[in-house]
Write a structure and sequence with these properties.
The chain is mainly α and 180 residues long. 62% of the residues lie in helices and 6% in strands.
Length: 180
């Protein structure tokens, strides 16, 4: 009988240890949720938050991206003079880009709105008011409300593509100037 209890105890202990190791190998903590760094399907390191929400989710291959996300749009424009110079061409002369960009969630949203304003001839202040006001709406909805006859979906896609490319080119130009 003692031998039977000993075998059961050892088996149970081994089972608990191996199930704990298997859970740890899959990156799951005691709560069953992921903790610590993991690799996304795109090969980027991600920091998952625990159930208490103390850690923020961070995705990206460098801290540089995370730092840019913390900066305001105005601060990003001050830092990226190439982009600021390009954007000035979309606004009337003398426009203060820092003031124009205030209230936007991120740089891409601001740059896309600037392109829509320029492309469709919508006054930027009207577009900005729709997107950043008391009841903010998406770029597409703002286009639809201000230019009902325009292809809001197509114009949004076009402006977002222009914004992405312009930001990417300006960052590359800034990096090459810093290196040289």
């Amino acid at each position: 009988m003692k031998r039977f209890i000993l075998v059961i105890s050892i088996t149970l202990t081994l089972w608990l240890l191996t199930s704990g190791l298997a859970t740890a190998q899959h990156g799951h903590g005691p709560s069953g949720g992921p903790v610590g760094p993991a690799i996304s399907q795109h090969g980027e390191m991600q920091e998952h938050s625990n159930k208490s929400g103390r850690e923020s989710t961070q995705s990206g291959s460098t801290n540089h991206e995370h730092q840019l996300q913390k900066m305001t749009v105005s601060e990003q424009l001050d830092r990226n003079t190439h982009l600021a110079t390009q954007l000035k061409g979309l606004f009337p002369p003398g426009t203060d880009l820092n003031q124009a960009s205030s209230g936007f969630k991120n740089l891409g949203q601001f740059v896309a709105a600037a392109h829509v304003s320029h492309n469709l001839g919508i006054p930027f202040d009207q577009l900005k008011a729709k997107m950043t006001g008391a009841s903010p709406v998406s770029l597409g909805k703002a286009i639809h409300e201000l230019r009902p006859g325009a292809d809001a979906k197509g114009e949004t896609k076009k402006a977002e593509h222009e914004a992405k490319e312009e930001i990417k080119q300006a960052e590359a130009a800034g990096k090459s100037q810093a290196a040289g």
